């Protein structure tokens, strides 16, 4: 089990002093689905980017904590008592990923010349390796030295092959792509290059499925999808929660996806803060009444 | 200004006679060499890009007197190819194909075009002639040169007869390194009607070396000349790659990749001359500069007044990995026939921070992410390469240079 905790989070754009987050408090636990809603400019996407460590934002106050339980990463990785809580703000984006944070991008980067397969296998192996480093104790270091001894053996194949080899990875990728009903040709295409909007979003969910995060923050994963693709993406998100126990923080403008991915909790963001939280019924009420209703309720009518 | 006096002091007719004599060249070739030697005094350095207050590449500062050691050329050379084509050393070609040489030698690159072409013509002691007879398809011709002397002057001629094809790799590296070395190469390609030539080069000389090369081709009717121009070595390289599309419906592609680091300096020209109808040119160069390296790129698409129905495209992209490296690019489009579809662009930029964040947020460490982005940047160039050895080695050398970095 893992728990992501945002405490009184304040953030601004690193170049300039435009304040965007003004005290966000939020908790997401493994296995839970949270919907984060709110009007444009309320700070939803910034919240997502700050959690993942985007360099364009500076945190001026507050904390982003990740609490882990003993066997979060299986039996192989022992998490000592003093390694249970991490302040993500002290960590690089790739270290946060190694601890189980995943950000699904609203606008995924198009990367020419790097195939999906190559990228994802690199990411998966880097994540495993970084995790070992983060939780390494003296015993672990000794074990690593032994490993190096093996790596010099000609039987072991190339040293940079990583924990998950090419053949094994192909198997994982194929299985996950089938689950998401993705065409296998995607595997050899360049990362998001020339993908349609829907294909990019599907690809974000695929990457989450392969990287098996503890907490996935999905930034408008539903926008611009046709109904078939929306169902595929929703199935993928539900599978993350049901099969891997991932906690989901789903940022959305629309009630529509919440019909397929039922949230346990709904939060409404206004002016850089969580203005209101509730159960799934809150989303329905928003659909009927709009955000002004929340604004009126929180700030009181004039 | 004339640069001719720079080497005149230690170059003599006797030296040129000795080189030509050792190769058992006919009288007309000796005469061509001697004329080039005599012309040195009058000839200037090749043109370089100038921006206000600055000559980007200063060839005048090179100390040719100490760089050029005409009678002590030493190299290791492989000249291999499939049986169907003739791949001959220069001395063999002189014996077996004098008429071919008489027809083509110096017909595409004027020996007296500038000081450095004349120097190369007067002093070249090694070279290769590739002759592809009519209808023959020849793959994977390879010329591998390892320079072991202070200076080395090389000449390459490719002649393809009607409806033949050939893919070629010519590569240079340094065997015995010295503090300063000079490699000079002239390449001429005569592509016959409806023939196809891909000539790829991989220049990976020592980073103490200087390099001057001119590679030029003439494409006859329906002929295609594709160039791959890879530059990784030397402290200073000045190259030109160009095609004259002289036959109707002829085509050319000039694809370049370079990666400069430390204080390397690359001055690269890519040029196409549209001189017939329905001709097509595509110029694509991608390069990286790091540390305090500099790159200067000049691309010219020249559409002549008789070049009806021309298609001509040019793109140059430079990726700067350090704040101190410099890149200058000047794509030029000269159109004298309105029936032309053309585009040209050049960009200089750094690694995209959003791309990097996308990759690191998935767990890839920043160094590997950067390396993947740079390797990916070169992929469109690598995809154009026909000869596996060139593609694999270019990719490998780029990867090794990246991993050398912090």
In which range does the helix fraction of chain B lie? Answer: 10-25%
Classify the beta-strand content of chain A into a percent band: 15-25%
Tally of extended strands of chain A?
A: 10
How much is the radius of gyration of chain B in Å? Answer: 21 Å
Count of folded domains of chain A: 1
Mean pLDDT of chain A, as a whole number? Answer: 88
Structural class determined from secondary elements of chain B: alpha/beta
Assigned CATH superfamily of chain A: P-loop containing nucleotide triphosphate hydrolases
Distance between the termini of chain B: 44 Å
- List the uncertain runs of chain B: 1-7
The H/E string of chain A reads: EEEHEEHEHHHHEHEEEHH
Shape of chain A: globular
Domain SUF system FeS cluster assembly SufBD core (chain B): 146-377
Family (chain B): Belongs to the iron-sulfur cluster assembly SufBD family.
Pfam family, one (chain B): SufBD_N
Domain SUF system FeS cluster assembly SufBD N-terminal (chain B): 74-139
Briefly say what this structure is:
Chain B: Belongs to the iron-sulfur cluster assembly SufBD family. The complex is a heterodimer of chains A (302) and B (406). With 302 residues, chain A is an alpha/beta fold.
């Amino acid at each position: 089990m893992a728990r992501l905790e945002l405490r009184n989070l304040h953030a601004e754009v690193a170049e300039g002093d435009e304040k965007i987050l003004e005290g966000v408090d939020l908790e997401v636990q493994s296995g839970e689905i949270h919907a984060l809603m709110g009007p444009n400019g309320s700070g939803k996407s910034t919240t997502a980017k700050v959690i993942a460590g985007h360099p364009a934002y500076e945190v001026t106050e507050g904390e982003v904590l990740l609490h882990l339980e003993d066997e979060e990463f299986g039996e192989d990785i022992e998490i000592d008592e003093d390694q249970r809580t991490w302040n993500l703000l002290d960590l690089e984006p790739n270290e946060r990923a190694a601890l189980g944070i995943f950000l699904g991008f609203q606008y995924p980067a198009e990367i020419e010349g790097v195939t999906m397969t190559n990228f994802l296998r690199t990411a998966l192996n880097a994540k495993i390796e970084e995790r070992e480093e983060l939780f390494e104790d003296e015993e672990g270091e000794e074990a690593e030295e032994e490993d190096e001894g093996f790596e010099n053996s000609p039987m072991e194949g190339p040293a940079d092959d990583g924990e998950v080899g090419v053949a094994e990875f192909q198997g994982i990728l194929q299985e996950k792509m089938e689950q998401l009903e993705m065409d296998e040709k995607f595997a050899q295409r360049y990362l998001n290059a020339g993908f349609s909007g829907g294909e990019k979003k599907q690809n974000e969910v695929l990457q989450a499925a392969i990287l098996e995060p503890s907490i996935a923050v999905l930034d408008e994963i539903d926008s611009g999808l046709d109904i078939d693709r929306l169902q595929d993406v929703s199935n993928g998100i539900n599978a993350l929660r049901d099969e891997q126990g991932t906690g989901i923080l789903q940022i959305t403008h629309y009630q529509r996806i919440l019909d397929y991915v039922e949230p346990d909790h709904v939060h409404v963001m206004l002016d850089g803060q969580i203005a209101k939280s509730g159960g799934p019924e809150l989303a329905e009420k928003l659909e009927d009444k709009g955000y002004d209703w929340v604004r009126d309720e929180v700030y009181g009518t004039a | 200004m004339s640069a001719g006096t720079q080497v005149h002091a230690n170059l003599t007719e006797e030296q040129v006679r000795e080189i030509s004599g050792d190769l058992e060249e006919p009288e007309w070739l000796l005469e061509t060499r001697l004329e080039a030697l005599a012309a040195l005094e009058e000839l200037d350095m090749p043109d370089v890009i100038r921006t206000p207050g600055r000559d980007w590449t200063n060839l005048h500062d090179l100390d040719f007197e100490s760089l050029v050691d005409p009678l002590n050329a030493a190299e290791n050379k492989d000249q291999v190819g499939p049986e169907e084509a003739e791949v001959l050393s220069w001395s063999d070609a002189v014996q077996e194909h004098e008429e071919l040489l008489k027809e083509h030698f110096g017909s595409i690159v004027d020996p007296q075009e500038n000081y450095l072409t004349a120097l190369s013509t007067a002093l070249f002691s090694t070279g290769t002639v590739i002759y592809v007879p009519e209808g023959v398809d020849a793959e994977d011709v390879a010329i591998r040169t390892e320079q072991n002397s202070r200076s080395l002057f090389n000449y390459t001629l490719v002649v393809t007869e009607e409806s033949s094809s050939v893919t070629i790799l010519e590569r240079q590296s340094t065997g015995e390194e010295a503090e300063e070395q000079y490699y000079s190469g002239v390449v001429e390609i005569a592509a016959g009607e409806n023939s196809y030539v891909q000539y790829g080069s991989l220049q990976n000389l020592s980073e103490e070396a200087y390099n001057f090369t001119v590679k030029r081709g003439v494409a006859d009717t329906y002929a295609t000349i594709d160039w791959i121009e890879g530059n990784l070595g030397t402290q200073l390289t000045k190259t030109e790659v160009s095609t004259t599309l002289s036959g109707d419906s002829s085509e050319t592609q000039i694809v370049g990749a370079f990666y400069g680091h430390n204080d390397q300096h690359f001055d690269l020209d890519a040029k196409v001359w549209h001189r017939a109808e329905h001709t097509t040119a595509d110029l694509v160069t991608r390069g990286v500069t790091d540390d305090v390296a500099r790159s200067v790129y000049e691309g010219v698409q020249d559409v002549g007044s008789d070049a009806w129905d021309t298609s001509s495209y040019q793109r140059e992209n430079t990726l700067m990995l350090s704040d101190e490296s410099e890149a200058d690019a000047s794509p030029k489009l000269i159109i004298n026939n309105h029936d032309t579809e053309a585009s040209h662009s050049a960009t200089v930029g750094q690694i995209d921070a959003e791309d990097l964040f996308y990759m690191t947020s998935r767990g890839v460490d920043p160094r590997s992410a950067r390396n993947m982005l740079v390797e990916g940047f070169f992929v469109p160039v690598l995809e154009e390469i026909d000869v596996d050895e060139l593609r694999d080695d270019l990719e490998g050398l780029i990867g090794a240079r990246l991993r050398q970095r912090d």
